[in-house]
Every structure is written in C-alpha cells, then in structure tokens.
Amino acid sequence: MRNTISVLLVSLFSVISLAQASDSPKNWTFLIYLNGNNSLDDFGTTNLNQMEKVGSTDQVNVVVQWASMAAGKTQRLLVKKIDESGKVSSPIVQDMGQVDMGDYNTLVDFVKWGVANYPAQHYFIDVWDHGSGWHQLQSMNHVTQGITKGPIHAQDISLDENTGHWITTEQLGLAMGEAAKIIGHKVDVYGSDACLMAMAEVAGEMTDSVQYFVGSQQTEPGAGWPYTELLTRWNAQANATGADVSKILTEEYVKSYQSGGSNSPDEVTFSGFDLSKMADLDATLNTLGAKLRAVDSTERAKLVSAIGSAQSFTNQDYDDLLDYLNLIKQANVRNLVPADFADVETAAKAFIIANADTDTFNRATGLSIWLPADKSTYSTYSDRYKGLKFSAASSWGATLESLFQDSRN
C-alpha cells in the first residue's frame, strides 16, 4: 500500500511539474490579430498554413485571433506544426462566434487573453488586414495574381466589412497603450501586415508603448508576410531581440517578392523603426520646420514643387521623408544650406533600423510622412492631422500649413 501511495505521489508530482513547465513564460509570444472579415479572407488561410509549417516552439508561442468572413465566425488558435496545405488544422482554443474586428477594444481583449494564457518575456503584436496609413485610402484596386478584383475601401487599419467599423490610427495608439499596461512593459514589436503603415504619423501614436515598429511604406500584395521564413529564422536565433526580429522580417519580406522568392514577384518595401529614437527625430524636424516656415513665397513654391517629385506610394500624399529632403537640398532654396538637413538625416537613420525594397522603390529610405501636394488635399485632412501626436511633437502640421498659405486650391 505504501508503495502504491508512493507511486501515486510521484506521478502526481510529475504531473504538477509538467504543468508548471508548460505554464512557464517562453521567450516570445507572437499575437496575430487576423481580420479576414473583408476581401482578404482567402489569404488568411494561406498565411495560417505558412505559420503551421513551423508552429509554436519552445522559443515562440504563435497565437492567432482569426476572423473569417466565409466561415462567419472568429476563433482563437494556438498554431501547431501541421503540414496540411489548404486546411487550417491547429487546435481551436476558443470559438467566439462573430466579433467586431474593427473595434480596437476587441484587439485589446485579444492581447489581454493572449498574455494571460501564453505568457512570455517578449511580445510581438501583428495586426493583419487592409491598411491605408494614417487616413483613408484615396483609391486602389485589389490585385491578386495579376487579376484586378475591384476597389478596396480601406480606412486606417482593420476594416471589418460586417460592421463597417475600423481601427483608426489614434485608436491603434490607444490599443498599444493598453497592451503595454497588460504586458507590464512596452510592446516589444508592433507590426502591420497591411498596406502603407510605415509612417511617422502611425508610429508617433505609440511611441510611449512600443519599442520596435515594422511595416511597409507601399501597399502589400495579398500574400502579405512570409510567415514560414519569418518563424524559421526567428526560432533559429536564440534570445532574439525585438530589433533582431524586425530586421529578420524586413529582409525576408522583401526577399519573398524577389525572383526565386516564395511569393509571386512584386514591387515592395519594408522597414523597422526604433521608437525610442522618435523624440530626436521630432525635435530635428521641429528645428528644420522653423526654417522652412520662414522662407518667402517664391522659395515656398520650390518646397511645394519638390513634393510632386518625391518618392511617393499608392496614396500620393504619402512620400518618403529623406527623399523629399534631398530634393529640397537640390532645389537651392534661399537661406537653406545642406547643414540645415544634417540633424534630421542623422536622427532618421538612427530611427530606421531596417529597410529593404525592390527596384521600383530604390529611392525609398524607409519612413513615409504626410506631404499633400496641394491646398485642397491639405485642407481635407488638416484638422484631424493637427491632433496627431507626431504633428504636435514635430510641428509638421504647422510646417505644412505654411507651405500652402499662398495657395487658393
């Protein structure tokens, strides 16, 4: 009898020990907020299959909140290594029915649940869906494998076509603020698997709550990120930091769309930012902006003209910051000298820790900024723009207002 009791106690101790081991924090938890309640729904399955080729490991939990328009429901999954192309086979941890993926509180709730159930030392939050930078998409057709599928109606990020709601740039900042409180420290990496999000205006909303930010200046092809390659390299690098993961994703994303990559060739960009360096960038733009605001009307015309020549992206009022500054230098604006731009260039290069692009975007340096080319476009968004954290911290809104003070349209 004593032997039996001893065996039972040993067995019970083993079970308790295994439970404790499984509950101990991993190095990383990757939280993917996959909003397929829109025209990208089919790509959700594709990306989940890519994740399943690696799955969750001893290093990284891969946890997904997956909304599918076709399925009419939202599920939470712990992604496992399962190779069944065309079918998602990872275990469903929670079936939620229909939820509003365009409500930033839903994103916060997912983070809260993910942190409670899959604790880790570090967290990467990925919002997957259509994106349009800091304001709505002006116009774009959705092209899949060379076939035009019709116009995308994108608003900021995470449009849920079932509800008509989306997460605004400002709300995304609020969500990351709540996420940092839940985690107990800054979110290690925030990323948008979505179009046009690598902007100073978007990043500026989360500087107090996120360490590293990743995203694309240009629109993303429907296939989005190459999750197999990302997870493979991530797991191969022991004790990977947020900067490491940001650089890995930047390299693998662009490589996947080049000849011989895992996706159909396309023209793309990708960047990683160190948000701890954003205050320096804001300060230098403030100083430069004061000089730009002081030029006379003749020289202001040169500043506006340069906007039309700068490297732009699908939204024509989204331009590459450093490319624009380089064009201003070439324009020989009176009372501006190359040294006036040096501090901004230095701060931007410290801020942009990773940048890659294909040939079409060889003038892209990693960071987009709002640069409307006419007063009409400026006026459309100016009131909202003045409320963004980046606009206030850098005085960029005031600089833009000064550029168009002589314009009637």
- Distance between the terminal alpha carbons, to the nearest Å? 93 Å
CATH class descriptor of the largest domain: Alpha Beta
Output the strand order for the largest sheet. 4-3-2-1-5-10-11-12-14
- Overall 3D shape: elongated
Mean pLDDT reading = 90
What does this structure look like?
The protein has 409 residues and is of the alpha/beta class. The protein folds into 2 domains: 26-278, Rossmann fold (3-Layer(aba) Sandwich), CATH 3.40.50; 280-350 and 363-403, no CATH class. The protein is built from 14 helices and 15 strands. Helix 5 links the parallel strand 10 and strand 11. The longest helix is centred in the N-terminal third of the chain and has 22 residues, at 2-23. It is elongated, with a radius of gyration of 23 Å. It starts with a helix and ends in a 6-residue tail after the last helix. Residues 1-22 and 139-151 have low confidence and may be disordered.
